[in-house]
Design brief:
The structure is a single chain. By secondary structure, the protein is α/β, with parallel strands linked by helices. The chain has two domains: 295 residues, TIM Barrel, CATH 3.20.20; 164 residues, Dinitrogenase iron-molybdenum cofactor biosynthesis domain (Nucleotidyltransferase, domain 5, 2-Layer Sandwich), CATH 3.30.420. The chain is 37% helix and 14% strand. β3, α3 and β4 form a beta-alpha-beta unit. The chain is globular, with a radius of gyration of 24 Å.
């Protein structure tokens, strides 16, 4: 049986990969959890930052109705180029959803999780939601089941959730104050009538908190999502984080408002701005003092399929399922073995990274060519300074994507303490897909896209990718961002630490040159 190839173990500091320095893998955000809980999330890509590099998820769109209105939401269909909650291409019946889930599970053995997240609210469509879970549990009991909800009906269905063995639930909680809630939710539909304003927000908040407590008391793992809305709930979310932790949530996902006018939401039409990357990171860091933070969320479509950051849903539309010709019995028996192999390899990698993290900074003498290359790199002003680095990756925790093919960049904060993932920056595709990138095809759109990409990388000092063309390389350097294509197919965190170590070496040499120019010139 062919198993997924994850990657080789990264080079040590003394190898050709450069100086690894004291930098190592930052602590796992879920390291504080008891072993029995960590075991439940180790292969859950939406809950574990490490798992999302190796395991896939899928959402099935069986829940069209919603019982609240959010100012940031517009549920519309057939918009395959958008990646945001509420967007789907096909609404499914429970039977169609299970058929699709089995096809995905057979074709993508790394798919470990099936969730229902819309396009409306799953608990406003209880019959369709729970029938889907019932049928799938009978046919594919190894798949974890998840549900995402606004929480309005959650207390009513808490027991039903546990009966269906759904042990992962996400609740979107944007506020605790009805005055703030009234700015986010125009209305809710409660007890067969529409309620507006602060009264509506108060009911929703009460139900969310009650449902959270009921689930955690029943042993269900609860993640809380919060949408960061500048000027509305940005400061308030710090209190939200403290309260949901006290009530039993184990993970908090603060995600940015998506409010482009073309999406047709109220906030989009009213030009409510989204937070900057720096604002999002700052708030996540402040909340992290009280709560484990999720930073790898992609705000997926309600019919997303595949690894986080990719969407293979177009491969599994209803009209294509018959053509797949899958041997389901053989494929299903293979799934457990594939997942076990991945977990075994991940454990081996964790042990190896722990050993590599003990290495001291490599200060060996480089030849003149290496010295010249290092001297052109941005340098840390001191060993304590952290640096933002961006990575182009298609998954598997590898630097394995061409700069021009990236629709997003993973951003890490790298320092002597380790490489800490802090989020992703979305961008448009720079290359046309036929081998033509940037100015090579003479398109104005390519120039505009490159400008937007560089703007999206604001604050980053280095970008690592498998390959990059001359034009974007030059433009990145002009913007103060150093391109790096020397770590293709290496593990992300080890490569980041290697680059950081090289920058430290260059920084030390720059300091020696300032102290003794003659000596520095002789060494060169």
């Amino acid at each position: 049986m062919d198993l997924p190839v994850l990657s080789h173990v990264a080079p040590t500091a003394s190898s050709g990969g450069g100086a690894a320095g004291g930098c190592g893998t930052a602590p796992d955000a879920l390291a504080h959890l008891p072993d029995h809980i960590r075991a439940r999330v180790q292969d859950h890509p939406c809950y574990s930052e490490k798992a999302h590099h190796y395991f896939a998820r899928m959402h099935v769109a069986v829940a069209p109705a919603c019982n609240i209105q959010c100012n940031y939401c517009n549920r519309k269909y057939d918009c395959t180029n958008e990646s945001r909650p509420g967007v789907v291409s096909e609404l499914l019946t429970p039977e169609q959803a299970v058929r699709k889930a089995l096809a995905v599970a057979a074709s993508i053995p790394q798919m470990t999780v099936l969730g229902i997240a819309g396009p409306g609210d799953p608990l406003a469509n209880p019959e369709r939601t729970f029938e889907t879970f019932r049928q799938l549990s009978a046919k594919a009991p190894d798949i974890k089941l998840c549900v995402s909800t606004n929480g309005l009906n959650l207390p009513h269905y808490a027991d039903e959730i546990t009966r269906h063995n759904i042990d992962h639930v996400t609740i979107t909680i944007n506020c605790l104050d009805p005055k703030i809630g009234a700015k986010i939710y125009p209305w809710i539909f409660w007890n067969n009538r529409r309620i507006r304003g602060e009264a509506a927000a108060a009911i929703l908040i009460r139900q969310q908190q009650k449902g959270l407590e009921m689930l955690t008391a029943r042993g269900v793992l609860v993640k809380v999502n919060s949408v960061l809305i500048p000027g509305v709930n940005d400061e308030h979310l710090k209190e939200v984080s403290k309260v949901v932790k006290a009530r039993g949530a184990f993970l908090h996902n603060v995600m940015p408002l998506i409010a482009e006018a073309e999406h047709g939401s109220y906030y989009g039409i009213m030009a409510q701005r989204s937070p900057t990357a720096a604002e999002l990171q700052a708030l996540q860091d402040e909340c992290a003092g009280d709560m484990a933070m999720m930073r790898h969320c992609r705000q997926c479509r309600a019919d997303a399929v595949g690894m986080l950051g990719e969407d293979r849903g177009a491969e599994f539309t209803l009209d294509k399922l018959d053509a797949l010709n899958v041997d389901y019995e053989s494929a299903m028996s293979r799934r457990k073995e594939v997942r076990s192999a991945i977990i075994e390899q991940l454990e081996s990698k964790r042990e190896m990274r722990g050993l590599l993290a003990t290495n001291e900074l490599a200060n060996g003498i480089r030849d003149s060519e290496e010295s010249a290359r290092l001297s052109s790199m941005p340098t840390p002003s001191s060993r304590s300074r952290s640096i933002l680095m961006a990575v182009a990756s298609t998954g598997h925790n590898l630097i394995n994507q061409h700069f021009g093919h990236a629709r997003e960049f993973l951003v890490y904060e790298v320092s002597n303490a380790g490489a800490r993932f802090i989020g992703h920056r979305k961008t448009d595709l720079y290359c046309s897909g036929n081998g033509q990138c940037g100015d090579e095809d003479g398109g104005v759109s390519a120039e505009t896209t490159l400008e937007r990409t560089i703007a999206a990388l604001e604050g980053c000092e280095v970008v690592l990718c498998s390959k990059i063309g001359y034009e974007p390389w030059s433009r990145l350097e002009q913007a103060g961002i150093q391109p790096n294509g020397e770590h293709a197919m290496e593990e992300i965190e080890a490569a980041l630490c290697s680059v950081y170590g090289e920058m430290e070496v260059a920084g030390k040499r720059a300091g020696k040159s300032a102290d003794n120019p003659a000596s520095a010139a002789k060494a060169a």
